[in-house]
Amino acid sequence: MLEPLRQGLPPLDPAAVSSAASCALPARYEAVREARRFTRGTLDQWDMDERFDDVCLVVSELVTNALRHALPNGTARVPEQHPPVRLHLMRWTERLVCAVRDPSHDSPVARETGDFSAESGRGLFLVDSFSDSWGWHPLAGTLNGKVVWALFHLPTPAE
């Protein structure tokens, strides 16, 4: 089990974010494709095409993990009125955060595997490899569950 990690996470104060976008994702595996499409459109709007490959890979892994491991047993894998998973993309001048909210209180578990050709079980390893940092934290107040996030440093704009 991983301890909640907030170190490296930018403040979540909406006033400090220069751009933000989010989308609700239903409890079905097609939601991963929807998350990639949403990420592509958002990064296009923000003129961040050069980061698409890394960010999209991380978004895919975070959403897949939420759908596979964080939904209560018996959660329907069909469209529903209150989608249980939500993707947030937040941009500051020099960083981008991808955050996936899910209803589980369980911490993400990074599997120890020596088989890097395996087709599953490497999600958090990939998130760690392609982002600059990542972590998770439980939600508080009226929100249930947790947020798993990944941070990407952005190039400093040329003056």
Short summary of the structure?
The chain is of the alpha+beta class and 159 residues long. It has three helices and five strands. The mean pLDDT is 80.
Describe this structure in words.
It is a single chain. With 159 residues, the chain is α+β, with helices and mostly antiparallel strands. The chain has helices at residues 30-45, 52-69, 123-130; strands at residues 19-25, 85-91, 95-102, 133-138, 146-153. A hairpin with a 3-residue loop joins strand 2 and strand 3. Helix 1 runs antiparallel to helix 2 (52-69) and helix 2 packs antiparallel against helix 3 (123-130).
Class of secondary structure makeup: alpha+beta
Q: Strand order, main sheet: write it out.
A: 1-2-3-5-4
Strand content: 15-25%
* Biggest beta-sheet profile: 5 strands, antiparallel
Shape: globular
Residue-averaged pLDDT, rounded?
A: 80
Order of helices and strands: EHHEEHEE
- Evaluate the radius of gyration: 15 Å
Alpha-carbon distance between the two ends? 44 Å
What's the total count of β strands? 5
Stretches with pLDDT under 50, minimum 5 residues: none
Instruction: State the helix count.
Output: 3
**Helix fraction by DSSP (H/I, runs of at least 4):** 25-40%
Which characteristics define this entry?
159 residues, alpha+beta, five-stranded antiparallel sheet
Topology:
Blueprint: E1 19-25, H1 30-45, H2 52-69, E2 85-91, E3 95-102, H3 123-130, E4 133-138, E5 146-153
Antiparallel strand pairs: 1-2, 2-3, 3-5, 4-5
Helix pairs in contact: 1-2, 2-3
